[in-house]
Amino acid sequence: MRGETQRWRTLVTVGAAMAAGSAAAVGQSLPDGRTVPLRMAIQEALANSRTVADAEYSLEVARQQVREAWARALPDIAGSISYQRNLMVQELFFDPGAIPGGSGGDPIRVRIGSDNTWQLGFTLSQPIFEYGVFVGVGAAGRFRALEEERLRGTTQQVVTVVRQAYLDALLAESDLRLLEQSIERVRQTLEETRALNRAGLTSEYDVLRIEVEFANVSANLQRARNAVGARKRTVLIEMGYDPDADIDLEGRLEEVDPESLAANTPENVDLIVLVGLPGVLEQTLGDLLQVAGEQRTDLRQLRSTILLEQAQLNLDRGEFIPTLSLFGNYNLQAQQDGGLDFFGNENQRTSSSAVGLRVEVPIFQGFRRFARVHQSEAAVGQSETRLVRAEQDATNQIRTLFEAVDEALARARSQFGAVEQAQRGYEIASVEYREGIGSQLQMTDAEESLRRAQFNYAEAIYDFLSARAQLELAVGVVPEEPGAFPVAGNQ
What we know:
Blueprint (H helix, E strand, L loop, with lengths): L1 H25 L8 E2 L1 H11 L1 H22 L4 E10 L5 E4 L13 E4 L4 E14 L1 H68 L5 H15 L2 H19 L8 E2 L16 H10 L9 H11 L1 H21 L5 E14 L12 E12 L7 H67 L5 H36 L16
Parallel strand pairs: 1-6
Antiparallel strand pairs: 2-5, 3-4, 5-7, 7-8
């Protein structure tokens, strides 16, 4: 009981300290207009994540369980001291005839004890051989290893969620930015069409068509702005901050060159470097699968679970094995009449002590131990089956993501050319329209094709970077500390 109380005091102290640090950050709100790079978003998320804090609490519980398991192998020493004041000292009656040489008559009253009774005692118990103690220490250590891996997996998941939220926000910003550019192009076309109409070079119907197109494009502007705000709020929430701030993000997906860092702005370089597995297409699928077998967190957790359940199986089997322990005790007792005199003098106290060995042999407990052994054997088999399935799922997931990265990159290459062609087509249509040799329909089609090509390119870059981030998580090599994230110079 004392061990349990101490354990919970330790956990409460650690938990309070961690909660205080987390609350200090979560209660803050970033100022409006603050630029939040992806690196900062990841660092703040790792520092403030409630999910990570929960995993850290679980790890602390596991560490204390290891200490508790070791405590069972150490001596158990207990002491006690007591004082008793007898208000009426107990008396016993003896028959005088029962005493050798005595005669009949009234019973004799004999006083038992004194006014004051003092007692002091110590006991010691030391396991010499107890199979369950040593197996329990190993089981506790394996449980701690499992919780350490769960913390690692939680950290990797938090990083990936932040990356994905950041990319979602950048895609929404690209959509809004391209939409605003499209609205500006349509507005310029509308002004030119009205001028041509006033000069008698176009019909009123042409003006009406452009006005309708301008209204249709502008109608999506508020939707796009709302989407950007929602995505930014998600980023702030993942960082552990109040989502009310209007922050700025770094990076423009529609300007990212995924094949040459030198062709990118510094903001896009940092985005490419931080978002996921570098040089993924330079590695073979077999290499990634081999790394995943060693680093992927769900596989490592399942292997740790199997080791833990095997330890539990050994612990259940150990209940059939006898135990040997050493015990000892020492007692000091004193009695006295009258006033208080702590343990009195030598004539008023006595002591006793003993040491010995105790062997306990389990004989029969109603088949309870057999049932536990069979349950543990089934649990081990169940986890081994889950591990095989998890390995198959991991292989499938990594292969799918590897192909998704390749496909998104190929799509980005194709869309890059499409953007250049659409831009050239729009310029030609604009010149022809102003010179009166092109139709308004050609102009409208060229503008729509340009907008769609630009967004398709931004979406292809988004898919490429997102697949890289997911692939890094699937392989199990997501950095777990802010200082472990790469920088552009190391790529």
